[in-house]
């Protein structure tokens, strides 16, 4: 049995299966990360990677909605993850990232043995796609769902990068292109769901990126006023559940 490189530290109380988030710890190549865990470990596992704004807004909403549907949800703060590997000129290396997600997948399936689905918000969507390009990591997941999937995704994070919330541009960090590597995701199913009025990732960008992917792939466009789907969350929730069902139906056996 492969030795897992994580340890658990419960930081909240409550009965098993409670829907409230429970922070736990995982170590990725010597860097401790905090995971926000929702639902019962006996549920079907899903890893939700937030955007580069941290574990706020859409990521927690998705986690809570899915936990209420019986899923076991692992919330991953990708801003903290990127920051932990950023020091001076050094940032996260694309070739190392899939190994980190493999550890997250092992964490998610430890109770049931079920492979998780990766759901990513913006930067988290790009990192989920990157993880699914690695043959070994790909074999440990059922599929990928990108919410506001950008093409260019940063590999580092510093506080000065917060300027992007004003400029709506990619931060001045090393990046990778999701479009350039999407052909390597198949046969893992890939779904994407953009907002029609996303101020960070226009629908046309998501469509262009998805066009580079091989089948199976599918696009759900949700009429909404911003990156967070904030004025149409009920419709977003319905489409997300449809996407999960589609991934289940198309996941390799």
Helix segment tally: 9
Total number of strands: 10
Level of helix content?
25-40%
Ends distance: 22 Å
Spatial strand order of the main sheet: 1-2-4-3-5-6-9-10
Low-confidence stretches: 1-18
Structural class: alpha/beta
Encode the helix/strand succession as letters: EEEHEHHEHHEEHEHEHEH
| Inertia-based shape | globular
Rounded to the nearest angstrom, the radius of gyration is 17 Å
User: Biggest β-sheet: count, sense, barrel?
Assistant: 8 strands, mixed
> What is the typical, i.e. mean, pLDDT?
92
**β content, as a range?**
15-25%
Structure description:
The chain starts with 21 loop residues before the first strand and ends with a helix. Helix 3 crosses helix 4. The strands form 2 sheets. An 8-stranded mixed sheet has the order 1-2-4-3-5-6-9-10, with helices on both faces. A two-stranded antiparallel ribbon has the order 7-8. It has 253 residues and is of the alpha/beta class.
């Amino acid at each position: 049995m492969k030795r897992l490189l994580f340890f658990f530290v419960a930081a909240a109380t409550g009965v098993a299966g409670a829907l409230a988030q429970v922070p736990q710890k995982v170590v990725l190549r010597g860097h401790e990360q905090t995971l926000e865990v929702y639902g019962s470990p006996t549920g079907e596992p899903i890893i939700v990677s937030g955007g580069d704004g941290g574990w706020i807004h859409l990521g927690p909403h998705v986690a809570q909605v899915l936990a209420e549907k019986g899923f076991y949800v692992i919330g991953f703060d990708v801003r903290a993850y990127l920051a932990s590997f950023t020091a001076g000129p050094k940032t996260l290396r694309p070739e190392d990232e899939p190994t980190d997600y493999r550890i997250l997948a092992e964490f998610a399936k430890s109770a049931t043995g079920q492979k998780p689905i990766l759901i990513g918000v913006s930067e988290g969507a790009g990192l989920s796609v990157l993880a699914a390009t690695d043959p070994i990591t790909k074999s440990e997941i059922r599929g990928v769902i990108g919410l506001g999937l950008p093409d260019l995704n940063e590999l580092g994070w510093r506080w000065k990068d917060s300027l992007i919330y004003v400029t709506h541009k990619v931060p001045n960090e090393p990046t990778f292109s999701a479009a350039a590597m999407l052909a390597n995701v198949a046969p893992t199913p890939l779904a994407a769901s953009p907002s029609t009025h996303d101020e960070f990732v226009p629908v046309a960008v998501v469509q262009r990126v998805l066009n580079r992917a091989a089948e199976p792939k599918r696009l759900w466009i949700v009429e909404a006023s911003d990156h967070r789907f904030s004025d149409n969350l009920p419709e977003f929730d319905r489409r997300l559940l449809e996407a999960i069902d589609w991934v289940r139906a198309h996941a390799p056996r």
